[in-house]
Structures are given as C-alpha cells and as structure tokens.
C-alpha cells in the first residue's frame, strides 16, 4: 500500500449546483429499509482441528480484502486462520471521475452520510461472518471455546474493528489498532466502552513516518485511553502509513506466547 492517502472526490461544480431545484421548499422525507447484501471476504489458511487462532483483519480505506489479506501470509502456519472481511461499499479510486474504466476499485467501511446506520450494518455483517467462521471451525474439529480470537484493524479499519468489538458479539483476546485510533464513538450512545473492552489486550502500532500518526493525534489517543482506564501497549516501526511484515510477525509471536 502507498503511504500517500487516497484522493478525495472533487466537490460539485457550479453547473451541478445550478441544476438543483429552486423556489419554494419541498417537503422531502427520508426513510430507511433493511435489505439483504452479499458480502465478500478472503481467508488465509483452512479450518481444521489444528487451528488455535483466528485473526479477523479489517482493511483500510480504498483497499480490497483479497489484496489486503496477502500482507498476513507470514501468519499462515496451519495453526492460524486469517479472515479479511471486505467493506460493503465499493468505489472507483480515481482523481479523474471520467476514467472509471481504468481506475482501480476500493472499498470503504462508511462515510459521514447516515453513519450510525452504516456502523450498525457492518457490525451485523461482521457478527454474521464470525458466526459462520466459528461454525466452520467447529465442523472441522476445532474447539471454538479454546480458540484465541484476535481482531486487527488498519487505518480506517481500526475504527471498524473497535466498533465491532465494542458493539458486536465477538469477544476477542486481543485487538490491534494499526495506523488508526480507537474512535471516541466506539460504543453506542450511553454504552460502556470500558466494560466492553474489559479483559481485551489493546495494542497500538504506528510507523515513525506515518503522516496520520502525528504527535497531537497520538496524545489525543493516549488521553482517551487514559480516561477510559484501558491498559494498552504501543509498538513502532520504521515506515509510514502501512503494514510491516517483520513487526506483524513479531507481534503475532508475542501475542501467541503471552508476551504482551
């Protein structure tokens, strides 16, 4: 992945704004309807009685699960199953919106539009995926109660992973926030984030040249975790806004062996 953030779609042109209806206010009412969606996810490893760990890895903005999961191939040793869910909304990653045919496709977990509904949708999706993976492992001879579940989120996926762990049904042993923070709104309004994360080991990973990991943002994250009374560990590496294979391998070994 590039260390450069993906471009933002251009604002509407004057011509587009001019085409909007004018005159007396129109009584517009917005509604919602629940629909079925088909979600895509990628895996490394196979469900079997040998599996001892399940890693759910949530990609960043503009990425796709199939490419993202390849960063975790070093964890595929027969005892780990790596599951990369793909966000439900895809888009063309292009600065020039006229060049869709040539542009790569990426996915995003949410936008600012109807954000609470989008959060609820992806929490329900990830819960359903977790239930499926757990059932597949049980059918293959693994003991779901003995599995170490770990959740990792990269960049935008860090907020997604956080909200899933706080609001969803998954009860991981670890959550890894890589290149992204625990969001201030991780829980539902009035929810107890500290209680939801009680017993979950929190590891924050950031590169020393990560343009999003500014001293101000890191201080804000430390302050939030402090207010919530959440113990955590921080790891760094030489690099920008990306995953790092060596750091990931070392972290995975330490979490497996209890060296948190």
Label this structure with key terms.
Rossmann fold; alpha/beta; 7 helices; 7-stranded mixed beta sheet; 260 residues; two-stranded antiparallel ribbon; disordered N terminus
Task: Give a short overview.
29% of the residues lie in helices and 19% in strands. With 260 residues, it is of the alpha/beta class. The longest helix has 25 residues, at 115-139.
Give an account of the 3D structure.
The protein has 260 residues and is an alpha/beta fold. The protein has helices at residues 14-18, 65-68, 115-139, 156-167, 193-196, 215-228, 245-256, and strands spanning 41-44, 53-58, 80-85, 89-92, 105-108, 148-154, 174-178, 201-207, 232-237. The chain has a domain at 38-199: Rossmann fold (3-Layer(aba) Sandwich). Strands 1-3-2-6-7-8-9 form a 7-stranded mixed β-sheet. A two-stranded antiparallel ribbon has the order 4-5. Helix 5 links the parallel strand 7 (174-178) and strand 8 (201-207). 34% of the residues are buried.
CATH structural fold name of one domain: Rossmann fold
For the largest beta sheet, what order do the strands appear in spatially? Answer: 1-3-2-6-7-8-9
**Uncertain regions spanning at least 5 consecutive residues:** 1-10
Tell me the distance between the termini: 27 Å
- What helical percentage do the residues reach? 25-40%
Number of helices: 7
What is the CA-atom radius of gyration, in angstroms? 20 Å
Q: What is the top-level CATH class of one domain?
A: Alpha Beta
Biggest sheet overview = 7 strands, mixed
CATH superfamily of one domain: Alpha/Beta hydrolase fold, catalytic domain
Series of secondary-structure elements, N-terminal to C-terminal = HEEHEEEHEHEHEHEH
* DSSP E strands, number: 9
CATH second-level architecture of one domain: 3-Layer(aba) Sandwich
